[in-house]
Amino acid sequence: MNDAPVNAAPAELSSEEVSEQKAVRLAKRERLIADGGEAYPVTVPITHRVGEVRERFGALQPDEASGVRVGVAGRIVHLRNTGKLCFAAIQAGDGARIQAMISLANVGEESLQRWKELVDLGDHLFVSGEVISSRRGELSVMADGWQIAAKAVLPLPNLHGELSEETRVRQRYLDLIAREQARSTAVARARVNASLRATFASHDFLEVETPMLQTVHGGAAARPFVTHSNAFDTELFLRIAPELFLKRAVVGGLERVFEINRNFRNEGADSTHSPEFAMLEAYQSYSDYHGIADLTQQLIQNAALAVAGSHVVTWADGTEFDLGGEWDRIDMYESLSAAVGVQITPETSLDELRALAEANDVEVKVPSHGKVVEELWEHFVKGDLVRPTFVMDFPVDTSPLVRDHRTKAGVVEKWDLYIRGFELATGYSELVDPVVQRERFVEQAKLAARGDDEAMRLDEEFLAALEHAMPPTGGMGMGIDRLLMAITGLGIRETILFPLVK
């Protein structure tokens, strides 16, 4: 019942084997129907879930009977037919398994023969009978009746082998059947989302929804997906971020709001990026980037507790990782200066920065002071950040939606949270001055004119909302997929149930 060993034989069948088995199984389906039965009944009389039976009767001793009858169902993942006694391991959706025993003495010769002729690995099976423990101590249902609950026309892969990564991603349903890790990751994601909502509820946040189709893309530096509305005869963009609409809600008086949403960015895909991904964004009036950092740490630590029962999580490879305690907060410019051995400040010229980038083979597509500083920081510092770390105070020209720092010239009150060397979340003291915001949008428009596909567009409707006065606010955004990466140690395609693949 455990995952296949790492060095197990490949699990996939050849196309010829699949075709042959499909033909045989289709014939069995036809026979089930011709004999007056059903290959896909609308329901079966289940009385207990497999996990419930295991929990209640798991302490039975070998060769002991419970005296209790149950009706259970699940997918057949192991099948062994002998003369007068047949065995099947049936697996529920949560991975819980129980053995079904089909004996001549209990079901009769005709039923036993139909079992041998019609039942295959992969079928969904209903069995009813007494809960017992076999002579080998295997918790079982000694069947006095059985029924196909759904006939599998295609065979399962070899569950004792290892599915290829391609199969796991493209046919996630097979991955969920075959691997406990796949099932536990799906469960962990649900627990993380529930925990996030519970933490926000404890802080009096309101969950809201904002548009996925937008007339102006904004809220992040990213290239959008473009589509067309026939009804409105206009170009639309799939949301790259919900930020500008969530801020409208804050202007309207919803002082603490959050959204767990789908975002779409028409960019590269790798071990930490997916074109479609889940994002959490939250805004809290009368807070700032320090307060929102405290909240973010609590959100993540509570999510770890929900999944692992501890702030120390165990990754898929067995590594333990500690998300507990107070997290470090470091300054971007100071940490970069320490790494390169040269003092770099917001006053450092673009020429000096470009020379340093060229000397270290750091490429910047559309150079500006802030872009070069951030690329240099990623080159020299990012890879060394393993423990959770808030990187504070970013260049002003790369952060058009962020308030100027209250004491430091040339930087804004923004942090990025790094865990295991990748960015997990970002937080701001939000820019709420509509005059400065307009100036920032104009600068972004200039970058766009120079060929920056990720630059934001001027959004007059958002500016009109700001002109009605937005209170001082702290905001944050965090990738749900990346949060799962931090908790499970998996790559992004493993944390997304059905990732986009080419």
Automatic annotation (TrEMBL):
<keyword id="KW-0547">Nucleotide-binding</keyword>
<dbReference type="Pfam" id="PF00152">
    <property type="entry name" value="tRNA-synt_2"/>
</dbReference>
<dbReference type="GO" id="GO:0000287">
    <property type="term" value="F:magnesium ion binding"/>
</dbReference>
<feature type="binding site">
    <location>
        <position position="423"/>
    </location>
    <ligand>
        <name>Mg(2+) 2</name>
    </ligand>
</feature>
<keyword id="KW-0479">Metal-binding</keyword>
<dbReference type="InterPro" id="IPR012340">
    <property type="entry name" value="NA-bd_OB-fold"/>
</dbReference>
<protein>
    <recommendedName>
        <fullName>Lysine--tRNA ligase</fullName>
        <ecNumber>6.1.1.6</ecNumber>
    </recommendedName>
</protein>
<dbReference type="InterPro" id="IPR044136">
    <property type="entry name" value="Lys-tRNA-ligase_II_N"/>
</dbReference>
<keyword id="KW-0460">Magnesium</keyword>
<dbReference type="GO" id="GO:0005524">
    <property type="term" value="F:ATP binding"/>
</dbReference>
<dbReference type="InterPro" id="IPR004364">
    <property type="entry name" value="Aa-tRNA-synt_II"/>
</dbReference>
<feature type="domain" description="Aminoacyl-transfer RNA synthetases class-II family profile">
    <location>
        <begin position="189"/>
        <end position="499"/>
    </location>
</feature>
<dbReference type="GO" id="GO:0004824">
    <property type="term" value="F:lysine-tRNA ligase activity"/>
</dbReference>
<keyword id="KW-0436">Ligase</keyword>
<dbReference type="GO" id="GO:0006430">
    <property type="term" value="P:lysyl-tRNA aminoacylation"/>
</dbReference>
<dbReference type="InterPro" id="IPR006195">
    <property type="entry name" value="aa-tRNA-synth_II"/>
</dbReference>
<dbReference type="InterPro" id="IPR002313">
    <property type="entry name" value="Lys-tRNA-ligase_II"/>
</dbReference>
<dbReference type="InterPro" id="IPR045864">
    <property type="entry name" value="aa-tRNA-synth_II/BPL/LPL"/>
</dbReference>
<dbReference type="InterPro" id="IPR004365">
    <property type="entry name" value="NA-bd_OB_tRNA"/>
</dbReference>
<feature type="binding site">
    <location>
        <position position="416"/>
    </location>
    <ligand>
        <name>Mg(2+) 1</name>
    </ligand>
</feature>
<keyword id="KW-0030">Aminoacyl-tRNA synthetase</keyword>
<dbReference type="InterPro" id="IPR018149">
    <property type="entry name" value="Lys-tRNA-synth_II_C"/>
</dbReference>
<dbReference type="GO" id="GO:0005829">
    <property type="term" value="C:cytosol"/>
</dbReference>
<comment type="subunit">
    <text>Homodimer.</text>
</comment>
<keyword id="KW-0648">Protein biosynthesis</keyword>
<feature type="binding site">
    <location>
        <position position="423"/>
    </location>
    <ligand>
        <name>Mg(2+) 1</name>
    </ligand>
</feature>
<dbReference type="Pfam" id="PF01336">
    <property type="entry name" value="tRNA_anti-codon"/>
</dbReference>
<dbReference type="GO" id="GO:0000049">
    <property type="term" value="F:tRNA binding"/>
</dbReference>
<comment type="similarity">
    <text>Belongs to the class-II aminoacyl-tRNA synthetase family.</text>
</comment>
<keyword id="KW-0067">ATP-binding</keyword>
<keyword id="KW-0963">Cytoplasm</keyword>
